[in-house]
Structures are given as C-alpha cells and as structure tokens.
Specification:
The chain is of the alpha+beta class. The chain is built from 23 helices and 25 strands. Helices cover 36% and strands 23% of the residues. The strands form 9 sheets. Strands 4, 5, 6, 7 and 12 form a 5-stranded mixed sheet that branches.
C-alpha cells in the first residue's frame, strides 16, 4: 500500500514490533491516573468536603456585623446629651495598596496622621485587612473616597456626639471606638443603651466586594433611649459659674451638685477641670475624675446642723437654749478646740449661725457616741450613694465603739470622718424634706419619693431656720443670699490632710444649702479645692457660686420668688451696712 509514491509497509518504524507489555503499561498508567483523579474528587467532594468548605469560607466568606444604633441620652426636657451619627471607618488590603502611590501624603493629611505612621500600618503582617482609622467624619470620608486609591476601603459605623461638651462630660461620660461605654452614664447604663448588633453572612471576592449572601440577614436591635433627671440648662449654668470661681480663686478644682428637694432627682452634677468628650486627646486623670462622687474629704462645719437636730430630738436643748462658749476655747483629753472668734453666751441657733466649734462640742458631749454615729449613718455618711455610677465612694465613718472623747468632739464639727460632695448634698435633703432623707436618682422620675426618717419634722424645721440665719447677715455666709429667694445653708472650710498630717496652707471650702427656706425646692452643694487668691473661707469662695446657681435654677424651674422673705433680707442687709 502506498500513498504519494511512499510504501508504508516498507517503513522500518512501522515494521518494528512493539512489546505487548509496554502498551499494557501505558494503558494501566492512564487507568491509574483516572482512578486517582476519581478518588481525589470523591475525597474532595464527599469525605473531605468540610475541610475544603472551611478553607474556602476562611478565604472568601465573611460575617459582616450590622451595628445597632446606640440609644440616645436625653435630659429631663428631651434635649439631647448624647446621640449616634453615621461615620466611616477606613480600612485597607495592604497587598493591594501601591506603596509609591502619589496620593499617599494626601490620604495621611485627611486622616490626620503622620505619613510614616500610615505607611507602618500598611506594612502590617496581615496582607488582607488592617484598620487605618476608626470613626472618621462623613465629610472627610467623602474626600478619601474621591481619591480612588486601590486597596483603601470604608465601612459604615456610628459615632457618638455630645452636644453639651465639657459641661456634662463627667456626668454623661463617653464610649470607645467599639461603641462601648467607658465612663459616666455611658458606662453605667451600657447594656440598656447598646442594643444588639445584627449580622450578614456573605461571600466576598479578593477586592472585598460582596458577591453573594450565604444566609438571611439578622437585623440589629437598636438600643433604648435614656432620659436623665438632669436639666441641661441648669447643668450648663452651674458648670460655668463653677469654672469662673475656680479660675477667679486660682483654685485646683471644683464641683457642684444640684438636687431636687422633693423628688431626689439630680438636676446637675459638674466638675472642673473637665474635658471635651467629642475630642479626647491627651486626657489626664485630673480631667477625668468625677470629683463630686469620687473624692472624699472631711466635711467640717457642715456637720454642725446634724448635731443640733439630734440634740433637739433627744430633748437635750432647744433652739433658744443658751450655751456658754467663752473664752472661745475648750480642752478635752489634752487637746484644745478653738473658735475662730470668741462669742460668749450663744443660743443653739446662734451656735450654728456663728459656726462655733466650742458650742457644738459642748452640745455633742452630752450625747452617747452611739446616738451620733446612728444619726450620721442614717443621713448617708459612711455609705455609698445608691447610684449606678462608677467610682462613687462611701467615705469613712468609724464605728462609735472606737471613738475617744476627743474624737467624738472633733466629729461633731466635721473632722475625723469623710464624705463626698454628693453625699453632703443628699444628707441635706433631711433638712429640706422635714427630717426625711430622700433617695437620689439620675433618671427622670414621675413617681412620688418616699424618704427615710432621720429627725423629727420639728427639729428639721428648726435647723432650717438656723441655716437661714447662717446664710444671712451675722452668719458665716451672707454672700449666699439670692435676690428674690430665701436661702439657708452652712459653710465648711477644712484643712487638707496629706499623709497623717494637716497642711497649713491647703484648704477645701464648701457650702451646702437649700432654697426657698419655707418650702425648699432644691439642695445645692459647692466645693472649691485649694483656693489660693487670698481667701479660703467658704463664705467668700463657695457661697457666691451657690447664690448664682440657686437663683438661676429656681427661675428655670419656674419657682415663684418668696417675696414675703425678700424684704426682710434686704432690710437686714441695709441695717448691717449702716
């Protein structure tokens, strides 16, 4: 057979005989290859399916968290103290980002970070994902998107905003980038505010684009709104007056607390130094401390009204009883107690008005230590305030069995025990509420408040009149008076203790009082720490802050001036001036 003149039968190649085993080997190898492929496919599809599915999901499947919108924090009138707004978080796939991209400096500028730091983040060992910056404002995020840089992506998140800024910072607190509460109300009520995040299981391509949903979306459950008892107007005004006083007196710090004397609601709680919760950069412990709740100190003369009330309740004295305080000093157990000025014979009311240490001690030493201890404890001293607030202290009130006579004496005028400013404010609700201690709350309350009786109504009303005298002409704090409203209160000026010794030139000054006197609506407590502008007496340093805060607060609450008292105050002031 031939084709084109070629005879194939004469070809040496075709004419050679191929061994049978060789062809069988080739066929066998091919068959083995097909069997191997079939077994491998079976293993991948059936036996090892879970492993390979897992590997695929690791590379391409993602669970996207759908953030819940955190609940708002509102004041008692519905004004916003904290809310969440949409923001963007910037992230990158480092292996997709061109290291020499000419837009890199512009990206660093928009993010507000040095270029070397940005490059360092993009050099992260994880080549598929790295956070660049969390919670970027929307306008900045749009400018970043306009750069159209490969490997730079954005995710939608929520960012907290605090309209009241520094004025309510210690009260409201703040959250971190994960939207979890870190301080203040944001921390105390974190579970209620947080809600529950949703989720979406998807498959993404290598560029981070969603190409398929793997299951139904679990919708997020938004957090609950929280309405506080705070009045943002009162809060702002109290804070501003506190700031003015601290700066004027060249003091270290200050705090102010305003309580509703009928319901126990906290209307304002402010501290200075403060911080801006919207821009928390280089914060210090001094700025973050909620001093009204976390700092305890010896309350000084603010304890004298409690001794007077207890003595009247026990029938030991009356408001008109005469107590001899001459010569202005008293020795007990080798220690001498002095008055700032000698007064001679004083009634019990005048002892509180003039803030006589000697007179107070003479009354206190007629009592059993247990009676004083129980009275102080019932007023809340030595006990943590019933607030869901982080860091609130209980202060110190030692058991009465360990008191020596000199210690009972000093505790009667506020040395040897400690309390926070908030505890002092709550304790004075006893006098504002006819002898009953009111429970306090940070949440708006629409129900009647039931107090715990500490003193009889008669004794509480008598002390209220003494406080009115103390804040008027002839008392220790005439600068506490307020135009149009009668006020009552007590000064406290205490040396600061460093280690086991008192420092001669460091003082805390405070004033706690109520208004109007006949039918109290508010209790206000003010503390100024280490004033150094020439005066450290509470009647000069803290009382004016009280006066201005009381006047503005009562006006905001719509309380009518008690005009029947006002002419008496004015007349007495004129008489004293003459």
């Amino acid at each position: 057979m031939s084709r084109g003149g070629i005879n194939f039968s004469n070809s040496p190649l075709l004419a050679s005989k191929t061994p049978v085993w060789r062809s069988k080997l080739v066929v066998g190898l091919l068959a083995l290859g097909f069997v191997t492929l079939a077994l491998r496919a079976t293993y991948i599809q059936v036996i090892g399916n879970d492993f390979f599915q897992t590997q695929g999901q690791v590379r391409f499947a993602r669970t996207l968290e759908l953030p819940a919108n955190r609940g708002r924090i509102l004041d008692r009138n519905g004004l916003i103290l904290a809310s969440s707004v949409e923001a963007k978080s910037i992230w990158a796939i480092p292996e997709d980002v061109a290291k020499a991209d000419p837009k890199m400096p512009e990206l660093a500028r928009l993010l507000g970070m040095p270029l070397p730091e940005l490059r360092k983040r993009l050099a992260n060992e994880d080549k598929t994902f790295v956070w660049i910056k969390r919670q970027v404002d929307e306008p900045v995020a749009k400018e970043i998107a306009a750069l159209k840089m490969a490997g730079i992506h954005q995710s939608r998140v929520y960012k907290r905003q605090y309209p009241e800024g520094e004025a309510a910072a210690h009260l409201v607190g703040f959250t971190n980038v994960e939207d979890a509460g870190q301080e203040g109300v944001e921390l105390a009520f974190n579970r209620q505010l947080s809600g529950q995040a949703g989720s979406r299981r998807v498959i993404k391509d290598r560029l981070g684009r969603v190409v398929e949903d793997m299951r139904d979306v679990v919708a997020p459950v938004d957090g609950q709104d929280l309405q506080l008892s705070i009045d943002s107007k009162i809060q702002y005004f109290a804070y501003q007056k506190l700031v003015d006083a601290v700066k004027t007196q060249k003091a270290k710090a200050g705090s102010v607390v305003v309580l509703d004397a009928r319901t126990g609601e906290v209307l304002a709680l402010a501290n200075y130094p403060s911080f801006n919760p919207n821009r928390r950069v280089n914060l210090s412990g001094e700025q973050l401390r909620n001093r009204a709740l976390t700092d305890s100190f010896e309350p000084g003369s603010t304890m004298k009204p409690f001794v007077a009330a207890l003595a009247m309740d026990r029938g030991l004295v009356k408001a008109s009883s005469t107590i001899q305080t001459a010569p202005g000093r008293l020795t007990i157990g080798g220690s001498t107690i002095n008055d700032a000025h000698p007064h001679g014979a004083l009634t019990l009311a005048e002892v509180v008005q003039k803030s006589s240490n000697v007179g107070t001690v003479k009354v206190a030493m007629q009592m059993h230590p247990r009676d004083m201890w129980e009275s102080y404890a019932q007023a809340g001293f030595g006990q943590k305030p019933q607030l869901p607030f982080p860091g609130a202290v209980s202060g110190r009130l030692r058991p009465y069995k360990s008191w020596r006579p000199i210690e009972q004496a000093t505790m009667s005028y506020g040395y040897g025990l400690s309390a926070s400013l908030f505890q002092l404010a709550q304790a004075y609700t006893v006098f504002a509420n006819d002898g009953e201690l009111l429970p306090v709350t940070l949440l708006k309350s629409n129900t009647a408040t039931v107090g715990v009786r500490v003193f009889s109504a008669e004794s509480a009303v008598s002390v209220r009149e003494m406080l009115h005298m103390a804040a008027g002409p002839g008392g220790t704090a005439p600068q506490a008076q307020t135009s149009g409203y009668s006020v009552g209160g007590k000064t406290g000026t205490a040396r600061k203790q460093v280690g086991k010794q008192y420092v001669a030139n460091k003082y805390r000054t405070f004033f706690v009082g109520l208004a109007p006197v006949e039918n109290p609506r508010i209790v206000v407590a003010v503390m100024v720490d280490e004033p150094s502008n020439g005066s450290y007496y509470a009647g000069v340093v803290a009382a004016p802050v009280f006066s201005e805060t009381v006047q503005q607060t009562l006006r905001i609450l719509g309380v009518q001036p008690d005009l029947s008292v006002k002419p008496q105050i004015v007349a007495a002031a004129v008489e004293e001036a003459l």
